[in-house]
Amino acid sequence: MVSPKSSEIFRTYKFPIILIVAIIIGSIVGLIMGEKAVVFKPFGDIFINLMFTIVVPLVFFTISSAVSKMVDLKRLGRIMGNILLVFMITGLIASVIMIFVVTAFPPEAFPIIATIGILVDAPATLINATGDTVVAMIITRMIEGKEKVTEIFKEYTLDNKLTMLLHKNLK
């Protein structure tokens, strides 16, 4: 029997527990399936894209709600100044890191490595391209609203993908 204390702990930490269990399950699937686990990538991409879609309005409305409830304008000015300062400092830090990395490792110095990577990862590239195409098709259909998601898979065949891939490589 579950004690009330452990039930309360589970209720309090429900989402972190689910996240940790999902990470463990994903790790086990990755260990068992190895390279074949790439077939699950489109599902992760769809999830991440949906999260990006949710996060921006959520942050906007949270900040708007907090600002609209503020009574003291001096406090609002200080908070906005701090937000602007943090934004500028993080942008400056990111710029310095980018300049350092590009100076230390110039991209034009590694063309051979990039070519070898493309040749070695050809099967994985085909799988990733397939997944990316499916994700793009689903998102396009969701935005346009013209067809159901199930009809996407009817028009998408391996033959069609191979023809498109060969045509792209011949150009």
TrEMBL record:
GO terms of biological process kind: dicarboxylic acid transport
Pfam families found in the cross-reference section: SDF
UniProt cross-references to Gene3D superfamilies, sorted A to Z: Sodium:dicarboxylate symporter
Keyword Transmembrane among UniProt keywords: yes
Transmembrane keyword on record: yes
Keywords on record: Cell membrane, Membrane, Transmembrane, Transmembrane helix, Transport
Subcellular location field: Cell membrane
Topological relation to the membrane, as annotated: Multi-pass membrane protein
GO cellular component terms listed in the entry, alphabetical order: plasma membrane
A molecular function GO annotation: symporter activity
Residues spanning the membrane: 12-34, 46-67, 79-106, 112-139
UniProt protein name: Amino acid transporter
